[in-house]
Amino acid sequence: MSLRICIGGATGWTGKALVAGVVAAPDLALAGAVARKAAGADAGTVAGLEPLGLAVAGDVAAALKAEPTDVYIDYTHPSAVKANVLTALALGVPAVVGTSGLGAEDYAEIANAAERQGLGVVASGNFSITASLLTRFSLLAAQHVADYEIIDYAKASKPDVPSGTARELAERMGAIQKSVPGHPIDEIIGPKETRGADVGGGRVHAVRLPSYVLAVETIFGKEGERLTIRHDAGTSAGPYVAGTLLAARRVVALKGLVRGLDNLLFGPLPQ
Ligand SMILES: NC(=O)C1=CN([C@@H]2O[C@H](COP(=O)(O)OP(=O)(O)OC[C@H]3O[C@@H](n4cnc5c(N)ncnc54)[C@H](OP(=O)(O)O)[C@@H]3O)[C@@H](O)[C@H]2O)C=CC1
Ligand SMILES: O=C(O)C1=N[C@H](C(=O)O)C[C@H](O)C1
């Protein structure tokens, strides 16, 4: 039997690519689509496909109550994602979280809800396979090099900071080894904000300018040498589809929260 998927944000940049990915996959079926402005319209038509005979729902609860669903996927907005995921879990549906804007405290709450319900959640700041390589390489490097900083580049209109990619990376690198500034920030002469923000132990500098989609750079410094690891997203949402759908296929067998697609792709980080 096909795995029945509901997509929150089905009319968005990423959501439309995912609707097409689910429709094209022989082992998946689209059971629900959520968006406010297109509520009532056909989910296939609004994604630029043939009609699917499935109406877009105006909210997550309505979609999940209307059709039996195995996995809820969220690509909505930083202001909506946490409530959507908690709603899915409360209705007994595991979740895959692509939307950015949540930090360690939000994920602790989501992990508790998932464990209470005996359900899985997979969240990843970036579901592209190559961005997951940036994450994994950076985590490995942080095990060996203490001094690092993260640069987070995104489009001027991005509503959240840092990006989901950079936030997850900073929190996970910070848990391995805190990035300790060589000169204490409190004693800096000049505007302290120019030294970026401590995000879960990792230091992040955010740049927001037209022409970027999203790029993340981790820079490691040692005496006499420097290592830079960088990922650049292009203008298509295609790279996020395979990783998101891999997470959807795997989340049904999990209990609790897994944060980071690299954990599904490459297994736990070697200690
Ligand atoms: N983890 C990853 O790999 C990736 C993460 N992202 C993240 O996913 C999120 C969505 O990105 P993107 O696809 O570009 O977004 P879009 O703005 O293109 O689409 C957002 C979708 O969510 C719906 N939506 C539901 N609730 C809200 C709300 N409260 N406010 C705004 N929209 C809402 C919109 O429809 P309507 O307004 O009609 O409700 C629309 O369908 C972002 O946080 C982005 O950073 C994006 C790509 C990859
Ligand atoms: O807002 C976007 O567009 C993206 N956001 C994600 C993030 O916040 O990390 C990543 C994706 O590359 C695009």
Automatic annotation (TrEMBL):
InterPro entries for this protein: DapB_C, DapB_N, DHDPR_bac, NAD(P)-bd_dom_sf
Catalysed reaction, written as an equation: (S)-2,3,4,5-tetrahydrodipicolinate + NAD(+) + H2O = (2S,4S)-4-hydroxy-2,3,4,5-tetrahydrodipicolinate + NADH + H(+); (S)-2,3,4,5-tetrahydrodipicolinate + NADP(+) + H2O = (2S,4S)-4-hydroxy-2,3,4,5-tetrahydrodipicolinate + NADPH + H(+)
Transmembrane feature ranges: none
The Dihydrodipicolinate reductase N-terminal domain, residue ranges: 4-127
Top-rank taxon, per record: Bacteria
An MF annotation (GO) of this entry: 4-hydroxy-tetrahydrodipicolinate reductase
Its EC number(s): 1.17.1.8
GO biological process: diaminopimelate biosynthetic process; lysine biosynthetic process via diaminopimelate
Enzyme class of the recorded protein, top EC level: oxidoreductase
Domain Dihydrodipicolinate reductase C-terminal: 133-265
Keyword match Lyase: no
Gene3D superfamilies given in the database record: Dihydrodipicolinate Reductase, domain 2, NAD(P)-binding Rossmann-like Domain
Record key words, sorted: Amino-acid biosynthesis, Diaminopimelate biosynthesis, Lysine biosynthesis, NAD, NADP, Oxidoreductase
Known pathway: Amino-acid biosynthesis; L-lysine biosynthesis via DAP pathway; (S)-tetrahydrodipicolinate from L-aspartate: step 4/4
Pfam families for the chain: DapB_C, DapB_N
Cellular component GO terms held in the UniProt record: cytosol
Family of this protein: Belongs to the DapB family.
Protein name, UniProt field: 4-hydroxy-tetrahydrodipicolinate reductase
